[in-house]
Amino acid sequence: MSSQSEKPSCLVIGAGGVGVITTYSLFNAGLSEVSLVVRSDYDHVVEHGYSIDSCDYGIVENWKPHHLFRTATDAAKSGYFFDYIVVTVKNIPDGPKSGTVHEIVRPVILSNHQINAARTTSVVLIQNGLDIEKELFEHFDPNHYKLALLSGVQLIGSTKVSTGKVVQIGQDRLSVSPFDSKDEAALEQAKLFASIYSNEGQNEVKFENNARHTRWKKLLYNAVVNTTTALAQLDATRCLKLSKNGTSTEQNLWVPGMMEIIAIAASEGVVVEPREMDFFLNFTKTYIYKPSMCVDYEKGQLMELEVILGNPLKIAEKNGVPAPTLFVIYQLMTILQGKTKERRGLIRFNETTKEVETVVE
Amino acid sequence: MSSQSEKPSCLVIGAGGVGVITTYSLFNAGLSEVSLVVRSDYDHVVEHGYSIDSCDYGIVENWKPHHLFRTATDAAKSGYFFDYIVVTVKNIPDGPKSGTVHEIVRPVILSNHQINAARTTSVVLIQNGLDIEKELFEHFDPNHYKLALLSGVQLIGSTKVSTGKVVQIGQDRLSVSPFDSKDEAALEQAKLFASIYSNEGQNEVKFENNARHTRWKKLLYNAVVNTTTALAQLDATRCLKLSKNGTSTEQNLWVPGMMEIIAIAASEGVVVEPREMDFFLNFTKTYIYKPSMCVDYEKGQLMELEVILGNPLKIAEKNGVPAPTLFVIYQLMTILQGKTKERRGLIRFNETTKEVETVVE
Questions:
Q1: How confident is the prediction along chain A (361 residues), in pLDDT tens digits per residue?
Q2: Cβ pair A242:B349 closer than 8 A
Q3: Do B355 and A234 touch (CB under 8 A)?
Q4: What is the β-pairing status of strands B58-63 and B50-54?
Q5: What residues contact B201, with CB distance under 8 A and at least 6 apart?
Q6: Which among A68, A83, A182, A350 is least buried, having the fewest CB atoms inside 10 angstroms?
Q7: Dihedral sign of CA atoms A177, A180, A186, A188 in order
Q8: CATH fold group of domain B214-343
Q9: What CATH fold (topology level) applies to the domain A9-209?
């Protein structure tokens, strides 16, 4: 076993379009030792490395991070301590148990604890949605494991177009915060992560101690626009322009839905200004783009429905905030999610009894 | 030109699965002279007739009604007076102008008027939705043309499976009423139509003087269940059972949506009892079935959105009845309808200007 450098060590889990660019950003900055868990493309990447066409970094050929692992368990067995476990997989709490975040990071948290129980492990969730940290707090005592939970909210346009090949068309802008704004250790870890992630003039990374606000703000887009595009299986611009008079989606669906997000956020003391809506509305009018839920649904993959829409609606219910637009969208989306679960064999619908029979784990 | 019999003469316009069985029902009863407008299958049907596999009438081979026409204009040129113009095409007021009901029936109303201005022409709209008669009243003075407008609300499961071949799996149950319950002439015509349509022990036809009530009642299903299946592209049973806990669609979407229909109907004095919901809810739990809007959307055809959901919502708005569930479903459905319009070339979306450019008529 080789000894590790003195630099902080990062393990990125999730080698999709976003995960690969995230890994490259850390690697290119040169301030950390960078490992990546690559599942399906492992053999190809070990042999050929990645081929990247990036608006931030240009053409990069045959690139590999410092270490590659086939699974998080392999990474855990490596004997390395990973200061940052960076999670870029989708967050699907209603999907197979093996794909939940706490299961994914478990082996590495346990091996870190075994290697050095006194050293802080930061888990950076670069994922959409709300209350995604709760699952980790429920499964791991942060004091026992010396965990710092960090929130990463990323705007990026990046796609894995084929095996080992990634195309990035939208600049990587990352906001890093502790989930708990009063957690001093997490605060320090977030600042450090922002510094080792920064590539001046290329990507854009900000340390901000307002995870909750940043996440609510991004929900303006994800809870409303992203969901709509999945239901219509259509890019966001067409969802706007092909609606009645070219205006009904904006006036009757998206603005009301966004105002509901603002009201729910306000009910827990987070102020999102209505003018923030303009950024996302203008974005949908400018770029013809299919957001993640539309892409996932069309690919037959589960969507991040619960963290993007289910959790905000739980807060609305708890605080008595009316959210009729989001509520109806959510009901429809659960049908789409159920349809995907049946198609993936995660549930089975018996056409004779007309009942859902089996949940396969 | 052959002379006509003394029996009433019926012209059915629309030779889909429903139209063909409707035509056969009239023919088989033997009390009227029956003509059918067949568009795409005309040559085949003239040569071979229809092949019908019907739960009401058994196997019927090489059947033709008394007269076949390629278009309504051809029927108008035949010199026949048609006592009943029976319309079984879809009602799509937001579609191409040539497909609107008033344009479809125009040549026959005009030729009837020319042949015998003193004789009543009944137009029987066997179609879904609300306020579908208004379009006809706007375009034709009922006194001048001696028009009686009749409402046909049909429950039937029938599909044209290939050229000239129709399979009927659900019994034909038709309710016939005058649209205007005080129109004595229409009342008489509706009674007569029910009598010439009836095939004892086979189909089921009722004269009822409550068109509005019957139409609101059927909207419990069409405005709520039918629309949902189009958005999910899934049969109605799965829309129920694949939702959250297998219950969220019924509890959070369909029952609230149906209660909104009941409230809107009540706002104009039509009483639909909440227990009527049970029939439709049980139906969706019993038969695995894709309703018309789902089928139309999947086939790339326009849906009867405006008459099924747009018109009830106009009444809700006029009478100040809250209908948040139906409202959100409608906004989403207009996007689906716009998507179909673009795919059919009825509108064009310019990806450079990001605007809808052209409406082709």
A1: 345 568 999 999 999 999 999 999 999 999 999 999 999 999 999 999 999 999 999 999 999 999 999 999 999 999 999 999 999 999 999 999 999 999 999 999 999 999 999 999 999 999 999 999 999 999 999 999 999 999 999 988 888 999 999 999 889 999 999 999 999 999 999 999 999 999 999 999 999 999 999 999 999 999 999 999 999 999 999 999 999 999 999 999 999 999 999 999 999 999 999 999 999 999 999 988 889 999 999 999 999 999 999 999 999 999 999 999 999 999 999 999 999 999 999 999 999 999 998 665 5
A2: yes
A3: no
A4: antiparallel
A5: none
A6: A182
A7: positive
A8: N-(1-d-carboxylethyl)-l-norvaline Dehydrogenase; domain 2 (1.10.1040)
A9: Rossmann fold (3.40.50)
